[in-house]
C-alpha cells in the first residue's frame, strides 16, 4: 500500500466532561499517529459553552504536535441559537472548517471547506459543484456502496475524499432530543443527561438485540463501523483519507492499528482483530460498503 | 377557493388520485415518475411520461398545477434517470420540479432556467441562511420546510428570505430531519436518499409468537403487539424499543400530523402553501382529506373558525399531533 494515505480523527460526538476532553486531546496530540484532528461541537449547541473552556488549549497542543486542526460545525442548524453558534465559530477561527450542514457553507462564502459526512454528497455533480464553492475535502456519507465511492473517487479531481472508517455511524438527526425524552425530560430542560453515556445510549429491540445508539438529537448505529478489511480496495480506488470517529476506547491504539494497516505493516486480519479487541461495547459493521444493510458485518 | 387562501398542494400517487385531488379542490398536485428518482418509489405508484402529460391536461382544465418531485439523490456514475426526469418534466409542461440534490439543482438551473424550482423537504433546509443560499445559487422559488421547525421559526424564515414556503399540514410525519436519515438503510439496505423508500415493504415480516404479533424490518424487531392490541406498519422510527431500562416509542408514537387547527397561525407566519402527505394513499383517502382541507383553508382565509372535518379516522393509530410546530414536542 502507498504511504500517502492519511488519518483524520473526527469530531467528538459525545458529551464528555471537560477533564476527559482535555486528557483525550493531550494524549492524541502526544501519541496518536493521525494527520488531522477535528474539534468542535457537531451535535448540540447546548453543549458548546463547556467546550469553549477546553478546545482552544487542545487546538494549540495539537498544532504544536504537527496535527492539522479542523473546526467542525453543527450537523443540524434549526434555530437561532444554532445559527449564532455556527457564525461565532466561523468568525473566531483561521483554521479550516468542516461543514456539517449547508448553513456553514453559506456562511463560509468561498473560504476553503471540508465537507462532513452528514452533508449529502451522493454523486459527481454535487461533488463538482461543492469543489467550485471551496470544498477541498469531502467525508462521504456512510451509506454509500463501493460502486458509488469508486465513481466519486474517479471524478474527484483535486478534492480529497475521506470515508467514515471507524466509529458509530451517524444515521439521523432530529429537532427532538431523544436522550432527554428517554429520561422523561424536555430538550430545553435536558439536565445534560447525554453526559451519562460516553459512547451514546444503547437502544435495543424488544427481543433484546442491540440496534441503535442515541446521542442527544442524533441517532447513531449501535455497531461500530470498521472498514479495515476494505481499506486496501478503497486506496486502490483513490481514497486517501480515513476517518476515525472518537469513541470511549483507546483511540491511540485504534489510530496505531490503522496507521499500521495503511503503511502495510499490519495485515488486514490482524488489524480487524485488534479493532474488535478494542471495541467491547458493540459489534463491528461494514455492510454499507458491500451494498448490504448498514448493520451487516461481511466477512 | 377564497382570495388570500393558503395554496393547497396535494398528493397524487396515481392518475386516479390526481383526478380525485384536483376534483376535490387541490390548487396543485405533486407526483413522481415511476422509478427511483422520487421519494415514494413504491410498487404500483407513480406516473409514466404519458400519464404525466394526461395529468397535466386534466389539472390545467381545472386551473390546477402539477409539480414533479425528483427528490432522491442521483446515483454516482449513473445520473441519467435523474437528468431525464428533469428534462421530461420541463418538456411536458410541469409547473415546477421539486429537487433536493445540489448537483441536480445546478443541472436544472443551467439546462432549464425557465422551469420553476422548488426545494424538496429532502434537502432539509431549515433556516434563513441555507434557504437564502439555495435561492441565490439555484434560483429556488419555494422551499418545502422540514418538519423540525416551530411556527415561530417558520415566521422568522418567511420574514428573512424572499422565497415562498410550503409546510406539511397533514399525514405521515418524519421525526428525523428529512433527507438526512439513514435508519432505513441501516436495517434494510434501502434508504430514502438512494432508493426513494423508507422501511420498505419487501423487508417487512410479521411473526405470530404465541398470540403476540411481532413486526420485523430486516433482521430487527420493530414492535411487539399483545393480543387485541392494534398492530401498525413497522416504520422504523415509529417502533417500540428499550433504552435506559424502559420500553417506549422513543422516537415517536404511531401518529399523524394534523395542523387543521393551526391554519390561521400558519397564514400569519407568512406560509404560502400547505402540503398534504400521502402519495401512497388511495383516491378515496385523497378525496376526503383534500376536500376537508379545501373547506378549512377557505374558512381560514375568511377569518372563520375551522369547520368540523371528520379526519380523525384517517390518522395513523387514530392519533394526531401538531409535531414540531409546537415547541413542547421537542
Task: Round the mean pLDDT of chain A to the nearest integer and report it.
Answer: 96
The level 1 CATH classification of the largest domain in chain B is Alpha Beta
SSE sequence of chain A, one letter per element: EHEHEHEHEHEHEHEEEHEHHE
CATH fold category name of the largest domain in chain B: TIM Barrel
Radius of gyration computed on alpha carbons of chain B? 19 Å
Strand composition percent of chain A: 15-25%
Descriptive key words:
heterodimer, A: 299 residues, alpha/beta, TIM Barrel, eight-stranded parallel β-barrel, 10 helices, 12 strands, globular, B: 330 residues, 2 domains, three-stranded antiparallel β-sheet, 30% helix, 20% strand
Structure description:
The complex is a heterodimer of chains A (299) and B (330). Chain A has a single domain (6-171, 223-281), classed as Aldolase class I (TIM Barrel), CATH 3.20.20. In chain A, 35% of the residues lie in helices and 21% in strands. Chain A is built from 10 helices and 12 strands. Chain A has an 8-stranded parallel barrel, surrounded by 4 helices. The longest helix of chain A has 17 residues, at 48-64. Chain A is globular and about 50 Å long. By secondary structure, chain B is α/β, with parallel strands linked by helices. Chain B is built from 10 helices and 15 strands. In chain B, the strands form 3 sheets. An 8-stranded parallel barrel of chain B has the order 1-2-3-4-5-6-7-14, surrounded by 6 helices. The longest helix of chain B has 19 residues, at 283-301. Chain B is globular. The model of chain B has no long low-confidence stretch (mean pLDDT 93). The chains are: A alpha/beta (299), B alpha/beta (330). At the A-B interface, α3, α4, α5, α6 and β7 of A face α4, α5, α7, β10 and β11 of B. β8 of chain A pairs antiparallel with β11 (241-243) of chain B, so a sheet runs across the interface.
Amino acid at each position: 500500500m502507498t504511504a500517502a494515505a492519511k488519518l483524520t480523527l473526527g469530531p467528538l460526538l459525545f458529551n464528555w466532561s471537560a477533564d476527559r476532553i482535555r486528557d483525550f486531546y493531550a494524549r492524541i496530540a502526544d501519541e496518536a499517529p493521525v494527520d488531522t484532528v477535528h474539534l468542535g461541537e457537531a451535535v448540540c449547541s447546548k453543549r458548546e459553552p463547556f467546550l469553549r473552556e477546553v478546545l482552544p488549549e487542545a487546538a494549540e497542543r495539537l498544532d504544536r504536535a504537527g496535527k492539522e486542526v479542523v473546526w467542525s460545525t453543527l450537523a443540524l442548524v434549526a434555530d437561532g441559537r444554532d445559527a449564532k453558534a455556527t457564525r461565532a465559530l466561523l468568525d473566531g477561527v483561521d483554521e479550516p472548517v468542516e461543514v456539517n450542514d449547508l448553513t456553514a457553507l453559506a456562511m463560509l462564502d468561498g473560504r476553503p471547506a471540508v465537507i462532513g459526512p452528514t452533508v449529502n454528497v451522493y454523486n459527481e455533480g454535487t461533488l463538482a459543484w461543492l469543489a467550485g464553492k471551496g470544498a477541498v475535502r469531502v467525508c462521504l456519507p456512510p451509506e454509500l456502496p463501493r460502486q458509488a465511492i469508486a465513481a466519486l473517487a474517479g471524478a474527484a479531481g483535486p478534492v480529497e475524499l475521506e470515508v467514515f472508517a471507524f466509529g458509530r455511524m451517524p444515521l439521523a438527526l432530529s429537532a427532538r432530543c431523544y436522550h432527554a425524552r428517554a429520561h422523561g425530560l424536555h430538550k430545553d430542560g435536558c439536565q445534560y443527561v447525554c453526559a451519562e453515556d460516553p459512547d451514546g445510549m444503547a437502544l435495543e429491540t424488544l427481543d433484546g438485540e442491540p440496534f441503535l445508539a442515541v446521542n442527544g438529537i442524533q441517532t447513531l448505529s449501535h455497531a461500530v463501523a470498521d472498514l479495515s478489511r476494505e481499506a486496501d480496495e478503497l486506496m486502490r480506488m483513490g481514497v486517501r483519507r480515513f476517518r476515525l470517529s472518537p469513541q470511549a476506547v483507546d483511540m491511540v491504539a485504534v489510530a496505531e492499528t490503522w496507521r499500521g494497516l495503511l503503511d502495510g505493516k499490519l495485515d488486514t486480519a490482524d488489524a480487524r482483530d485488534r479493532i474488535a479487541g478494542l471495541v467491547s461495547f458493540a459489534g463491528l459493521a461494514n455492510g454499507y460498503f458491500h451494498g448490504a444493510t448498514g448493520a451487516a458485518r461481511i466477512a | 377557493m377564497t382570495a388570500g387562501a393558503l395554496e393547497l398542494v396535494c398528493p397524487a400517487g396515481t392518475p386516479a388520485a390526481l383526478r380525485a385531488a384536483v376534483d376535490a379542490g387541490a390548487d396543485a398536485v405533486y407526483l413522481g415518475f415511476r422509478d427511483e428518482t422520487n421519494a415514494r418509489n413504491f410498487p404500483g405508484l407513480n406516473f409514466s411520461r404519458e400519464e404525466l402529460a394526461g395529468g397535466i391536461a386534466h389539472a390545467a382544465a381545472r386551473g390546477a398545477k402539477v409539480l414533479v418531485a425528483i427528490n432522491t439523490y442521483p446515483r454516482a456514475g449513473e445520473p441519467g434517470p435523474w437528468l431525464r426526469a428533469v428534462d421530461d418534466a420541463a418538456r411536458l409542461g410541469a409547473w415546477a420540479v421539486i429537487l433536493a440534490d445540489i448537483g441536480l439543482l445546478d443541472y436544472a438551473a443551467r439546462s432549464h432556467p425557465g422551469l420553476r424550482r422548488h426545494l424538496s423537504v429532502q434537502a432539509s433546509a431549515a433556516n434563513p441562511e441555507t434557504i437564502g443560499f439555495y435561492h441565490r445559487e439555484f434560483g429556488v422559488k419555494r422551499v418545502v420546510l422540514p418538519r423540525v421547525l416551530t411556527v415561530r421559526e417558520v415566521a422568522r424564515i418567511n420574514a428573512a428570505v424572499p422565497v415562498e414556503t410550503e409546510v406539511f399540514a397533514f399525514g405521515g410525519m418524519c421525526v428525523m430531519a428529512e433527507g438526512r436519515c439513514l435508519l432505513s438503510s441501516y436495517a434494510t439496505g434501502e434508504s430514502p436518499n438512494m432508493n426513494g423508500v423508507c422501511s420498505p415493504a419487501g423487508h417487512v415480516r410479521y411473526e405470530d409468537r404465541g398470540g403476540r404479533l411481532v413486526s420485523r424490518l430486516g433482521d430487527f424487531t420493530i414492535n411487539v403487539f399483545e393480543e387485541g392490541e392494534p398492530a401498525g406498519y413497522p416504520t422504523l422510527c415509529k417502533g417500540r424499543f428499550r433504552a435506559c431500562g424502559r420500553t417506549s416509542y422513543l422516537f415517536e408514537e404511531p401518529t399523524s400530523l394534523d395542523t387543521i387547527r393551526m391554519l390561521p397561525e400558519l397564514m400569519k407566519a407568512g406560509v404560502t402553501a400547505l402540503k398534504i402527505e400521502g402519495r401512497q394513499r388511495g383516491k378515496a383517502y385523497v378525496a376526503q382529506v383534500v376536500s376537508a382541507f379545501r373547506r378549512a383553508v377557505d374558512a381560514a382565509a375568511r377569518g372563520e373558525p375551522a369547520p368540523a372535518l371528520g379526519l380523525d379516522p384517517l390518522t395513523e393509530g387514530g392519533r394526531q399531533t401538531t409535531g414540531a410546530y409546537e415547541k413542547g414536542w421537542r
